[in-house]
Amino acid sequence: MTPAPVRPSPFAPQVRPDGSRRFSHDAVVARRTLLAGLVVAGASGGVLLTQLRSPHETASAADPAVHDPVALTAPEPAPGTAPATAPPPGPSTTDAASPWVVVNKQHPLNPLEYAPELAVVGGKEVAASIAGDLRALLDAARAEGVSLSITSGYRSFSRQRSVHDSSVARNGLESAESLSARPGYSEHQTGLAVDFGGSSAPGCLLENCFGQTPESAWLRARAGAFGFLLRYPEGATPVTGYEPEPWHWRWVGTDLLARMAERGVTTLEEFFGISGGTAYA
Ligand SMILES: [Zn+2]
After folding, report:
1. pLDDT at position 35, please?
2. CA of residue 85 to ligand 1 center, whole Å
């Protein structure tokens, strides 16, 4: 199948006047959660709060589920989107309940309001289907002296929709589209995506510097053994539609990971020949 040509999006994210980019939904959600926790706990954490707040964070960007901000340039055609061969046999990539489902800005969940069966791991809801592997991963990390935590797991369609609706009311449609993900387009809605954090560098929670922590190094070395893929790797933004997110891991299973390694590809879009990129379909 030949992918549809990428059209210029009428909702292209805006660059702030100072040239800064907005934060991903992951970062904003977690920062707000942590800040709320500190307030509830009555922590006199002025210094910590200062560290946690980004210099670029603004009220308008501080929405839960603010989505990846980052298409600062015109949308580019996604490389690797033309399948060289027929799709590999295996689970569906379009069924929302499939372990191999591909969700990106070109491919929303189907059905749009899909919700998985849930389980709680590390205090967060995730798809029940990944609970065993996720628990095993956390146990292995702990046994090896690495303090991993789960910052974010499943996020529902309705939560995303209410956030998006209120953002539209507040900011207008065009601006809201650049700030918050459309409901149905977040991989977190599958329950298969997990944002990890760690205790070694609290200021790096959902920030690029998480990639330099021992927790990140452990994940890169070991998460694959439990079926987790680094979903938004370096250099793949035109393919995945997202800036690198060293904290965001997606369960796909060890079988698919082995096949991807054989082919030498790092993204689901390239492996399956599925279109992606920074523009919404
Ligand atoms: Zn995430």
Report:
1. 42
2. 30
Q: Are 56 and 20 in contact (CB under 8 A)?
A: yes
- Which segments in the chain show pLDDT lower than 50? 1-23, 25, 27-82
pLDDT of residue 281: 86
Q: Where are the chain's structural domains? A: 25-272
Q: How far is the CA of 156 from the centre of ligand 1 (A)?
A: 13
Instruction: Identify the CATH assignment for 25-272 out of 3.40.50.280, 3.30.1380.10, 3.30.930.10, 3.60.60.20.
Output: 3.30.1380.10
What angle, 0 to 180 degrees and rounded to 10, lies between the N-to-C axes of helices 214-222 and 131-143? 130
Residues recorded for the chain: 281
Instruction: Give the pLDDT confidence of 112-144 residue by residue, as tens digits.
Output: 999 999 999 999 999 999 999 999 999 999 999
Name the residues around ion ligand 1, CB cutoff 5 A: 26, 195, 248
Residue 35: other Cβ atoms inside 10 A: 17
Give the residue among 209, 220, 223 at the shortest CA–CA distance from 252.
223
117 SS3 class: coil
* 8: CB partners within 8 A, 6+ apart: 74, 75, 279
